[in-house]
């Protein structure tokens, strides 16, 4: 069991903050925490099964038509996700809208199929998919938390039993920074977060260099 | 909706990049100079326009009569991939000059969210054939507008670069955010003020 394949997607090769793949859903669905978590779950499911199937089929797919083959595999699993969401969580299905079928063209999934699953065994590919999927979900949830808390003063989760699913934060909900929930806020926040992560990696690289001396 | 309303909606009010975040990857990746931005913009407009019309025909001519609506996503992505390939081959034969200008951008367009996005939006909004085509062209024009503005911003940033941590992608996102703020001036009241809604 190779745990390195599992953990690399979460921090060192995080698909959102380090490799910068799959930006469209990252910015579009992060207005509420529940949407971000659902999107992450959908991507994790598609990523896991497409990686497993492509890894199993890698010896049977001719190299010249591999991309259309991958796309068909991915699109089939996206259709399954669409149907499941439509049947069991219609509110989330409606909120995600066009971005749910657009998982097909999410670069993370095709990217992992091409860069990893087509060259590695089934178990490693599955671990890679789980790691990348969790990394993507965490990144989305992180962005959604910042945007929803600052922009609306609430945290929206699943309604369970008597709990309505919405946590209201006292002061912020009276004076929210509305821009954060709008398109402009998402782009600005992403820019500042990326700059922050650049600064952080640069600093840790410098530290490692000093330690090795 | 009238055709002018559809044009205004997808170019300004629901600009594909600055409001809907569709097609962000090429927007950040291919906007380093204005020449390639124009090439990418034209290629995307060409494909969104044709893909809108073709996917409309596939949905209403094939999937709906056969009761296969749930295959929409798979069918559309295959149609778009085939279409992009076809456009590439036709351009290479018919117009080598245009192919030289757009050729390198065409393969990238298959996985551009904007193309599949407009195809699905057309079906969701229940547009007719001509309306779909106009919406496709408008989405492409909106993309072109945003990417040309972005490339100009990035060319001026080359002359006076920001701090090291902000160079490249971060400053591109922040500039796009500021652009999106100014695009907020266009909302649905634009249509009602023009008596189009």
Task: Report what the structure shows.
The complex is a heterodimer of chains A (213) and B (197). Chain A has helices at residues 3-7, 23-28, 33-57, 66-88, 90-96, 107-117, 122-152, 170-174, 183-212, and strands at residues 154-156, 166-168. Chain A contains 9 helices and 2 strands, in the order H-H-H-H-H-H-H-E-E-H-H. Chain A is mainly alpha-helical and 213 residues long. Chain A has a domain at 3-138. Chain A is globular, with a radius of gyration of 19 Å. Chain B has 197 residues and is mainly alpha-helical. Chain B has one domain (3-182). Chain B is built from 10 helices and no strands. Classes of the chains: A mainly alpha (213), B mainly alpha (197). The interface between A and B is large, with 43 and 42 residues.
- Biggest sheet layout of chain B: none
Q: What class do helices, strands and sheet pairing of chain A give? A: mainly alpha
Coarse shape of chain A = globular
- The topology string of helices and strands of chain A comes to HHHHHHHEEHH
Instruction: Give the integer mean of the pLDDT values of chain A.
Output: 87
Structural class of chain B: mainly alpha
C-alpha termini separation of chain A: 34 Å
Q: How many structural units, i.e. domains of chain B?
A: 1
Radius of gyration of chain B using CA atoms only? 18 Å
What's the quaternary structure here? heterodimer
SSE diagram, text form:
The complex is a heterodimer of chains A (213) and B (197).
Chain A: H1 3-7, H2 23-28, H3 33-57, H4 66-88, H5 90-96, H6 107-117, H7 122-152, E1 154-156, E2 166-168, H8 170-174, H9 183-212
Antiparallel strand pairs in A: 1-2
Chain B: H1 3-13, H2 24-29, H3 34-66, H4 72-94, H5 96-102, H6 106-109, H7 113-124, H8 129-159, H9 169-183, H10 188-193
Helix pairs in contact in B: 1-8, 3-4, 3-7, 3-8, 4-5, 4-7, 7-8
């Amino acid at each position: 069991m190779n745990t390195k394949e599992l953990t690399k997607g979460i921090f060192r090769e995080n698909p959102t903050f380090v490799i910068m793949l799959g930006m469209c859903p990252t910015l579009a669905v992060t207005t509420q925490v529940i949407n971000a978590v659902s999107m992450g779950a959908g991507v994790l499911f598609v990523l896991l099964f497409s990686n497993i199937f492509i890894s199993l089929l890698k010896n049977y797919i001719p190299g010249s038509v591999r991309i259309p083959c991958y796309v068909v595999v991915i699109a089939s699993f996206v259709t399954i996700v669409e149907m499941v969401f439509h049947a069991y969580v219609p509110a989330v299905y409606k909120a995600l809208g066009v971005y749910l079928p657009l998982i097909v063209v999410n670069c993370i999934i095709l990217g992992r199929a091409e860069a990893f699953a087509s060259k590695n065994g089934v178990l490693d590919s599955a671990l890679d998919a789980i790691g990348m999927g969790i990394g993507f979900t965490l990144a989305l949830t992180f962005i959604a938390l910042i945007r929803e808390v600052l922009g609306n003063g609430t945290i929206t989760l699943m309604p369970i039993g008597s709990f309505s699913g919405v946590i209201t934060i006292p002061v912020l909900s009276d004076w929210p920074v509305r821009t954060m929930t709008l398109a402009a806020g998402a782009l600005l926040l992403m820019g500042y977060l990326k700059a922050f992560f650049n600064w952080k990696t640069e600093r840790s690289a410098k530290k490692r260099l000093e330690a090795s001396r | 909706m009238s055709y002018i309303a559809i044009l205004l909606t997808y170019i300004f009010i629901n600009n594909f990049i600055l409001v809907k975040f569709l097609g962000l990857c090429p927007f950040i990746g291919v906007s380093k100079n204005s020449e390639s931005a124009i090439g990418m913009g034209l290629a995307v407009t060409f494909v969104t326009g044709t893909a809108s019309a073709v996917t409309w025909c596939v949905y209403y001519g094939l999937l709906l009569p056969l009761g296969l609506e749930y295959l929409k996503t798979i069918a559309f992505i295959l149609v778009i991939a085939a279409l992009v390939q076809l456009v590439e081959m036709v351009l290479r034969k018919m117009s080598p000059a245009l192919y030289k200008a757009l050729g390198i951008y065409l393969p990238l367009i298959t996985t551009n969210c904007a193309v599949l996005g407009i195809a699905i939006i057309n079906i969701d909004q229940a547009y007719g054939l001509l309306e779909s085509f106009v919406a496709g062209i408008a989405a492409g024009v909106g993309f072109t507008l945003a990417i040309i503005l972005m490339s100009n911003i990035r060319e001026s940033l080359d002359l006076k670069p920001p701090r090291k941590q902000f160079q490249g992608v971060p400053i591109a996102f922040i500039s796009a955010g500021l652009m999106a703020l100014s695009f907020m001036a266009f909302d649905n009241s634009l249509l009602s003020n023009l008596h189009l809604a």
